[in-house]
Amino acid sequence: MADAVQKPGNAAPAKKAATGAFTPAGVSPNRRSRHKYTIRLWAVRNSRFFEWFYHRFAEVFLLLHPVWKLFGYQRVERPITFVEKHVKGFLFDCRMCGQCALSSTGMSCPMNCPKQLRNGPCGGVRANGNCEVEPDMPCVWVQAWKGSQNMAKGDAIMNVQKPVNQSLRETSSWLRVTAEAAAARETAANAGKDA
Amino acid sequence: MAHLDENPLGPHLPLDPLPGHSSMGRLERVLRRGEFAVTTELNPPDSANPEDVYERAAIFDGWVDGINAVDASGANCHMSSVGICALLTRMGYAPIMQIACRDKNRIAIQGDVLGAAAMGVCNIMCLTGDGVQAGDQPGAKPVFDLDCMSLLETVRIMRDNSKFLSGRKLTTPPKVFLGAAINPFAPPYDFRPYRLAKKIEAGAQFVQSQYCFDVPMFREYMKKVRDLGLHEKCYILVGVGPMASAKTAKWIRSNVPGIHIPDSVIARLEGAQDQKKEGKQLCIDIINEVKEIEGVSGIHVMAYRQEEYVAEMVHDSGVLKGRQPWKREPNPVDQLVAERIEAARSGQQQDQQQLAEKAAQHPH
Ligand code: SF4
Predict the structure, then answer these.
(1) pLDDT tens for residues B287-308?
(2) What pLDDT score does A31 carry?
(3) Where is the Methylene-tetrahydrofolate reductase C-terminal-like domain (chain A) (predicted)?
(4) B350-362 pLDDT tens trace
(5) Cβ–Cβ of B186/A120 closer than 8 Å?
(6) pTM for the full predicted model
(7) Is residue A1 one of the residues assigned to a domain?
(8) Alpha carbons B31 and A97: distance in angstroms, whole number
C-alpha cells in the first residue's frame, strides 16, 4: 500500500516522499509511533529512588546466593529472566541486552536508542531534545544525562562502556551480577584466608 | 628548500617514525608541531571511475593537510571510504578514513582498519554515523554493533596492544592517528564537553566538529573544554563551510540532523545581493573568528559541492600563514610496486603449461 497516508514522524516520510526522494512502501522505521514514553520518563525522573532501590535489591539477591546455587543458576535462569524482562520492560522499556547499564545511564535504557549507543548521545539530537531517528521520542541520552544528575553515583555516565556482547541477549543481568559479586566475595575471602 | 615533512634522503621515501607519534602521517606531524591544520572532505563519487576520485582530490592540492574519505555520509550510498582511501593512497594523498558504525559490525570494521593501515592510511576517524532514516535507503538494516566510543577503543587496542577486540594477537599493529567527531551544537549542551573527555579517554587524538555557524555557542563550549583541560589532550578542528544560499541553509536546518544554523546567519544570507559570495565571506569570517579561540588547532572545511572554493577560502583567511601543506605522500609499498612492474616488464613470459606442471609436482 504505497499510497497509504503515512504518519508524521520518522523524519516525516510523507514530506520526504513529496520532495521526490525514494521512500520504500510499507516500511515504518518509526516502529514505536503509538508508544507512550510516560513510564520510561517517570523512571528517569525518579532515578535517585531507583538507584537506591536497586542497591537494596541487589543485596537481597546476593543474600539469596545459596538459594540460587542450591537450585543451580542454570535452572533459575528461565523464571528469573521472565520476571526481569517484564518488570524492567514495564519500567524502563528494557530490551534485555543481558548486561544492564541502567545505573550508568541515569536509568534510561540505552538499548532504546535507535543506534543503541551505550556511551552518550549522537550528534543528531534535535534542538527540542528529541531523537534524530524517531522525532516523537525524547532522546534516550538527553534523558540519561538528566537522570544521572539526580543519582548519587551519576558520574558512572562518564565511564566508557564496552561493546555489547550480543550472545548475552535475553539472559538475566540480575543473576549475572549476583554470580559475579558472589565469586568476587569468595576470592576475596580466600585471599584473606591465605594471607 | 626541502619541505619540513620530507625524508632527508629523498622525497620519494616514506617518513621516519617520530618518537611519541602514533602514525607516520603528516597530519599528526603538523598538529604536534603546533601548526594550524586544515582538513577537508572529498565528495564521494557515485561511480566506479577512479578518475572521479582523482579529479575531486586534485582541487585540494597544496591547500589541505588531510582529506576525509567519508563513509556513506548522511546514510546515502556512495563509493566506500575504503575504496576512496585505496585510490588516494595509491596517488600519494593523505586521506583520513572515516568509519561509521552504521553499516559494519566489529568483524568487518577491524578487518577494514588493518586493510586501510596496510594501504598507507595514517588517520582514521571513528563515527557513529547518521541513522539510516536520513539517507536514500531508509529500509536498510542499521547495524550499530559498536558505537563511536567503543570503536575508538577498539582501534586504540589494535594499535597500542597489538590485539583484536577478542584478544587475538596482531603481528603488525595498524599505526594510525585516531580521530573522532564532536557536535557542540546539539543538546544536552552541558554533557557535550564531558562526552569529548570520554572520547579522549577512549582514544581520540584529534576531533573534527560539526558545522560551526554559531560562534558564541562554540566559544561557550570551548571555555568548558579548556576548564577541563581537554584542549591539551586532543587537537580540535572546527568544522566550517560555505552555504550556497539562504534557501539551502533553511533546508539543511530542517532536514539534516545535528546542524544548528542560527537565524542571524540566514538573515545575513537573505539580505545579500550575491548569496553565494556572501556564504563564502561568512565562512571566511567564521574561520577568522574561531582561529583566535584558545584551544583550536585547525579547521575542517566541508564545502559540499563547492569544493573549488576551499583553496580560495583557505587562502583568503590566511590560516596557513604562508605554510604550504605537502602535496604527495610516498606510499610505503611504492617501491615494491615499482619493482614488481619492472620485474614483469623485464621477466620472461609466463608459460601456463609449465606452471601447471610445476604445480602438479608440488603438492603444497
Ligand atoms: S538522538 Fe539520542 S536516541 Fe536518537 S539516535 Fe541519537 S543518541 Fe540515540
Answers:
(1) 999 999 999 999 999 998 888 8
(2) 45
(3) 74-166
(4) 677 877 888 888 7
(5) no
(6) 0.87
(7) no
(8) 41
B339 pairs with which residues across the strands?
none
Cβ of A117 closer than 6 Å to ligand 1, yes or no, is yes
Under the phi-then-psi rule, with left for phi > 0, alpha for psi from -120 to 50, and beta for the rest, what region is B150? alpha
Domains of chain B: 26-361 (3.20.20.220)
Taking CA atoms only, the protein residue closest to ligand 1 atom 6 is A122
Is A14 inside a domain boundary?
A: no
Of the CA atoms within 13 Å of residue B139, those in its CB half-sphere come to 6
Q: What is the pLDDT of residues A15-26, one digit of tens each?
A: 555 555 444 443
- Listing DSSP states for B284-332 in one string gives HHHHHHHTTSTTEEEEEE--TT-TTHHHHHHHHHTTTTT---------T
Asked whether residue A91 is domain-assigned, the answer is yes
pLDDT of residue A13: 52
Instruction: Tally Cβ neighbours within 10 Å of residue B39.
Output: 27
Contact residues on chain A for B138, CB-CB shorter than 8 A: 10, 13, 23-24, 27, 29
Whether the predicted pLDDT of B145 surpasses 50: yes
> In this complex, which of B102, B188, B202 lies closest to A160 when CB atoms are compared?
B202
**Tally of domains within chain A:** 1
The domain in which residue A132 lies consists of: 32-182
The contacts of residue B119 (CB under 8 Å, 6+ apart) are B85, B86, B89, B90, B331
Which ipTM was obtained for this model? 0.85
